[in-house]
Specification:
With 260 residues, the chain is an alpha/beta fold.
Amino acid sequence: TKGRINYMFPEERKSKILNSLNKYGKVKVCDLSQQYEVSEVTIRRDLQELEEDKMIKRVHGGAVLNGNTKFEPTFSEKIDKFYDEKESIGKLAASIIVDGDTIALDAGTTTISIARQITAKNITVLTNSVDVAYELAKKRDVEVIITGGTLRWETRAMVGPVADNALKNFRVDKVFIGTNGICVSNGLTTPNIIEANTKREMIKIADQTIVVCDHTKFGIVCFAKIVNLDTVDIIITDNQIDNSIIEEFEEKGVKIMKAK
């Protein structure tokens, strides 16, 4: 078989790489090079071609599936992505917060934008985000309650049993939730189970659930389910969202607000 591997066609090798990715979720250049007895340069070229075909996403030293359900971009990777879109979503979301509201604000780069642009007076905000709390500490008319919990480095969210138990003590008018994926049939999803659970607890305590996400999150399905779509009242997104998607969601009774 070794002799045969040496004469493997590039397409056949790329197909086998995809099979490995489907099985293990991630591959390393050095492992593939040894497995197929070709240089690391050859493997990198294979991976580059697969990435150009939108099949995979290259990461340091290897690759993950494009749309790998457990792939999770870090907070620092997300902060500069779609900055203008997040600012516009944040402004629209902040505008529906009225004087005297009680709010739960999820952790995430889009919810920080909401926190920054809140103008309502005499409101109380419950959050599991150190960054949201820091932004709101600058506003005198906002009372801030922080859940506590285990701080995840990847998302800078406080999650887990301490956060979940803290949330159970409150009721709020509105919750603003970020998500990694939103889909008509699979609802809201995120790569991490513990984070999904904390988001779910946050949704449970709110009269109204408002999802904030840019247009790239639609149709994406991640590993851990947060809630079904029927739990969501409003989705606030940017103006690059396709009208056919809006119609699909509104047929399911979910209102979509498009930021300018």
